C-alpha cells in the first residue's frame, strides 16, 4: 500500500508483503507468534452484538493462519461526551464473551475519545513455525472449501435501509459472531494446503489474492457457493454496499465470468464480509473428509465451491 523500507529478519516468517491475514514471527523451533488487529464502526444496532462480532472478526485472522489465539487487547474509540458509558461496557462485555469462547484471555487495551465509535481487538496467537497456513500454498488439483455463507455486507446495508426483518437480522448477527475456531481445528486435524478468511475483498477478491500468492488458477462453481437465504432478494433490490462495486472494479481484469453468472450473483460474490468464513484449499483426497468433519462440528454451511487449476495463474474463472 505505502512503500515502507522494511528490515529483514530471518525469524519474520510472514510479514506485510503478501497481503496475508496476520504476521508470524518465530520465537523458538516449536513456537511462532501470530499477531493481528482489526477494528471498525458498528454494523449492527445492539452494542453487545457489535462487541461479539468485532471480536470474532479480529480473532479470525489467527484461525486463518492455522493458529490458536492466546491473548487479546481492546481497541476503543468512543464519543464519551455524547454517548452513555453503559453502551461501551456492553460492547466490551460482548467482546469478552467471544474472547473467552476462543479460549483466549483479555489482557488490556486502549481507548481514545472520538466522535465516531469504533471497536476491535489486537490478538496474539501461536502456531508451530512449520505448520502455519497462508494463502500461498494452494496446489493444482486441490479443491476449495468455504465454511460460512456469503451476504453479511448486503444484509448490513439492508439493515441500515430498515429493510431487514428481525429474523434475518438475528441470522446475520449470529453468523458474524460465530468464531472460525471449530473450522480451524478441523482444518488442522485433516491437513490442508492453504487458507485465508473472507473479509473486505469479498469471496472473489480473496480467491484472486490466493490465486496470485499461490501462482495458480482458480475455478469457482458459483451455484455451489453458500449464500445466506435472504441475501438474493436484497441484492435484487439493489441493496449492495459500495465495497462490492469497488472490489469488482479493482479485480475485474483478472476474472473470467461465464455468461450464465448474472450481475446480481456477481454483486454477492464480491460482497465485503464481516467475520466471514474460511476459504480452504485442500488436497482432493481429503476434501470429503474435511467437509464431513466440519459438518460434525456444526460448521453446517461448509461446501466445496471450486478447484485449483494448473493454467492461467493469478486468475479466477467463474462458472
Ligand atoms: Co483476514
Ligand atoms: Co484482518
Ligand atoms: Co492466512
Task: Please explain how this structure is put together.
This protein is an alpha+beta fold and about 325 residues long. About 35% of the residues lie in helices and about 25% in strands. It is built from 10 helices and 13 strands. It has helices at about 45-65, 85-100, 150-160, 165-175, 180-190, 200-215, 230-235, 240-250, 265-270, 285-295; strands at about 10-15, 25, 30-40, 70-80, 105-115, 120-125, 145, 195, 215-220, 255, 280, 305-310, 315-319. The strands form 2 sheets. Strands 8-11-7-12-9-13-10 form a 7-stranded mixed sheet, with helices on both faces. Strands 1-2-3-6-4-5 form a 6-stranded mixed sheet, with helices on one face. Strand 1 and strand 2 (about 25) form a beta hairpin. The mean pLDDT is about 95. Bound molecules: cobalt (II) ion (3 copies). One cobalt (II) ion (CO) binds near residues 36, 38, 61 and 199.
Q: How are the strands ordered across the major sheet?
A: 8-11-7-12-9-13-10
Percentage of residues in helical conformation: 25-40%
Average pLDDT: 95
Tally of helical runs: 10
List low-confidence stretches. none
SSE arrangement, N to C? EEEHEHEEEHHHEHEHHEHEHEE
Euclidean distance between termini CA atoms: 31 Å
Number of strands: 13
Structural class by helix and strand composition: alpha+beta
The description of the largest β-sheet is: 7 strands, mixed
Please tell me how large the radius of gyration is.
19 Å
Principal-axis shape equals globular
Q: Which ions and ligands are bound to the chains? A: cobalt (II) ion
Q: What percentage of amino acids are in beta strands?
A: 15-25%
